[in-house]
Amino acid sequence: xxxxxxxxxxxxxxxxxxxxxxxxxxxxxxxxxxxxxxxxxxxxxxxxxxxxxxxxxxxxxxxxxxxxxxxxxxxxxxxxxxxxxxxxxxxxxxxxxxxxxxxxxxxxxxxxxxxxxxxxxxxxxxxxxxxxxxxxxxxxxxxxxxxxxxxxxxxxxxxxxxxxxxxxxxxxxxxxxxxxxxxxxxxxxxxxxxxxxxxxxxxxxxxxxxxxxxxxxxxxxxxxxxxxxxxxxxxxxxxxxxxxxxxxxxxxxxxxxxxxxxxxxxxxxxxxxxxxxxxxxxxxxxxxxxxxxxxxxxxxxxxxxxxxxxxxxxxxxxxxxxxxxxxxxxxxxxxxx
Length: 337
Prior knowledge:
Layout: H1 2-6, H2 9-23, H3 31-46, H4 50-68, H5 73-88, H6 92-110, H7 115-130, H8 134-152, H9 157-172, H10 176-194, H11 201-214, H12 219-237, H13 242-258, H14 261-279, H15 284-299, H16 303-321, H17 326-336
Helix pairs in contact: 2-3, 3-4, 4-5, 5-6, 5-7, 6-7, 7-8, 8-9, 9-10, 10-11, 11-12, 12-13, 13-14, 14-15, 15-16, 16-17
């Protein structure tokens, strides 16, 4: 609806509450109320009120049962939505129970090769990753990938999504080679479908860069990935966007790991004015970047400049977090040595 498209969640909620009041004047279960309840749940979720959202999803589930009966694909939608909400709340056992109810129903009604079944497996895998239970995550995510490959072919965006999710689990288990293989497959699919400059590639390039960085011997490849991400972010968001500054910091850290301290300093210096423009000169992200600069200057043998950067960071931490904050105290100890 228009209010939701414009981002006015409060007005959207008021609209749906009014619609619900009108619908409620008629007695008995009404399938049209399902849409109202679900839209209200979506708005409440967007506002961060997941407990209230759960209440409305449960109401829609009750009506779906009365209108459609015990075994209907619509009920699986409610079960999946409840699984997602409980995952967000960190109640993984409850989330798993609802996802499994959705899976059981879809298997019964649609068969094991249906894409909606793959969606259930994927959601369960993502939930287990957040537990974290990596073996269970891999098992479910792999089932989703297998169904999607058969139903959609090997070069589909949903296949890329599965590859990416499985790669993140391998990366979390420090299985860098497996993660890189799957990140690259996801990247190739998205490049072919979306083009080489699409914003969706940024996340994959960043993940690939982090995976290569974890292998240590592939730091140049990591830097190349981060530079691809930087190029896309500048093209899509503009050179002064906060995410561009974050990418400069990531590239700077990679150069530091490589031992190329002048290159690291150059990247951190580029990040500072963007962060100051976005947050103000006394923001802790600015302080952290000054610390990055100080450490790079120290490694590069410029102790005087390093001390100036440490002092600048210390002033910000002192003003923003107080004299007893651990970061403030750590910088004070560094400057005293």
